[in-house]
């Protein structure tokens, strides 16, 4: 893939050599041999409803489509397995991560032989009145590698849109989560997190994330105004790939999501998206970590950060959970 804008920083060919001493035929051959392989990733777009079996059938079809395309990591959107029509309905279907719903998705990942990021699962919470909105990462054997409980809860009266108060029935998480996978080091987030750049600064500059996952169910009103804008901003300011799976269309009479699932590269370019904001399907692109490394080398914003003036933007007192060993769940 060729990126014309890279000429502004001296990028002149697909796999950029990042050291001046390698600008020789022998040096370029050695460097190209050492570059990490390109990895296919995908984001899903769907319209979940209040039927976990119907949603599983939709997700299974998307997983099969991704596997056929050679995808190594597929990201499903927030609430992939259930979106209710009444406030508090998710409490009735919430399960621990050892429950039967999760086991079906573990089998799905294992049978397809790909990594599966489950963007927002209704995990049984700390009490009978609350769940966790949990982003679960499965490896290609179906094992749970990492889980992130959504930190920022959507308690908003959307101008011209619905009034949503996620905290009524959802407890917030308290840990930042990163995990290694074939596509690079992943930073796990969920939907409303996108509006809080401090989290993404932490994932990039303290945890060294390379790929940020932002599975979402953005409202139609906020999506029209801010969805792509915020995603591209997070990519540029962190120099990371951003994978944004999305819920789309009308889930019921009360709930409608914006859609527009997309993948953005570390230069802020949208490199994949579905042709329609409402269609069910996947968007596929390649993660090129050599390109990411070249951007970070030529524009070293990590070195230019002025902690002496504005203080640390990634406070270390916030717990971090990353690079976990495979769980037996």
Can you describe what's shown?
- Residues 310-329 are annotated as: Disordered.
- InterPro entries: C-N_Hydrolase, C-N_Hydrolase_sf, Nit1/2_C-N_Hydrolase.
- Keywords: Hydrolase, Signal.
- The protein has 329 residues and is of the alpha/beta class.
- It has a single domain (35-322), classed as Carbon-nitrogen hydrolase (Nitrilase/N-carbamoyl-D-aminoacid amidohydrolase, 4-Layer Sandwich).
- It contains 9 helices and 17 strands.
- The chain has helices at 25-34, 52-68, 90-93, 100-112, 197-206, 220-238, 289-298, 301-304, 307-310, and strands spanning 39-46, 73-78, 115-127, 130-138, 144-149, 155-157, 163-165, 176-181, 184-188, 211-213, 241-244, 246-250, 256-258, 262-264, 270-273, 281-287, 320-322.
- The strands form 3 sheets. Strands 1, 2, 3, 4, 5, 12, 13 and 16 form an 8-stranded mixed beta sheet that branches. A 7-stranded mixed beta sheet has the order 15-14-11-10-9-8-17, with helices on one face.
- Strand 14 (262-264) and strand 15 form a beta hairpin.
- The relative contact order is 0.17.
Main features:
Nitrilase/N-carbamoyl-D-aminoacid amidohydrolase; seven-stranded mixed sheet; disordered C terminus; 17 strands; 329 residues; eight-stranded mixed sheet
């Amino acid at each position: 893939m060729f990126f014309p804008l890279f000429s502004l920083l001296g990028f002149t060919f697909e796999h950029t050599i990042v050291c001046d001493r390698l600008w020789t035929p022998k040096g370029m051959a050695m460097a190209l041999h050492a570059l990490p392989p390109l990895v296919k990733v995908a984001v899903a777009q769907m319209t979940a409803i209040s039927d976990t079996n119907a949603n599983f059938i939709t997700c299974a079809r998307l997983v099969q489509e991704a596997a056929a395309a050679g995808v190594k990591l597929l990201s499903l959107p927030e609430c992939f397995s259930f979106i209710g029509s009444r406030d508090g309905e998710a409490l009735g279907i919430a399960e621990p991560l050892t429950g039967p719903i999760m086991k079906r998705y573990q089998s799905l990942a294992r049978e397809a032989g790909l990594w599966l990021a489950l963007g927002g699962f209704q995990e049984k919470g700390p009490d009978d009145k609350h769940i966790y909105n949990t982003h679960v990462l499965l490896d290609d054997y179906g094992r749970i590698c990492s889980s992130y409980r959504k930190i920022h809860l959507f308690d908003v009266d959307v101008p011209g849109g619905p009034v949503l108060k996620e905290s009524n029935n959802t407890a917030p998480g308290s840990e930042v989560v990163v995990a290694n996978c074939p596509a690079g080091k992943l930073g796990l987030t969920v939907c409303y997190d996108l509006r809080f750049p401090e989290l993404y600064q932490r994932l990039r500059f303290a945890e060294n994330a390379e790929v940020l996952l932002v599975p979402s169910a953005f409202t139609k009103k906020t999506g029209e105004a801010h969805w792509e804008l915020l995603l591209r901003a997070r990519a540029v300011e962190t120099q990371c790939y951003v994978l944004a799976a999305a819920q789309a269309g009308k889930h019921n009479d009360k709930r409608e999501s914006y859609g527009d699932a997309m993948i953005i590269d570390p230069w802020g370019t949208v490199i994949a998206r579905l042709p329609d904001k409402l269609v069910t399907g996947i968007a596929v692109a390649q993660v090129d970590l050599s390109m990411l490394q070249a951007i970070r080398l030529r524009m070293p914003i990590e070195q230019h950060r002025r902690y002496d003036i504005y203080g640390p933007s990634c406070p270390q007192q916030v717990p971090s959970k990353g690079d976990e060993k495979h769980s037996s769940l």
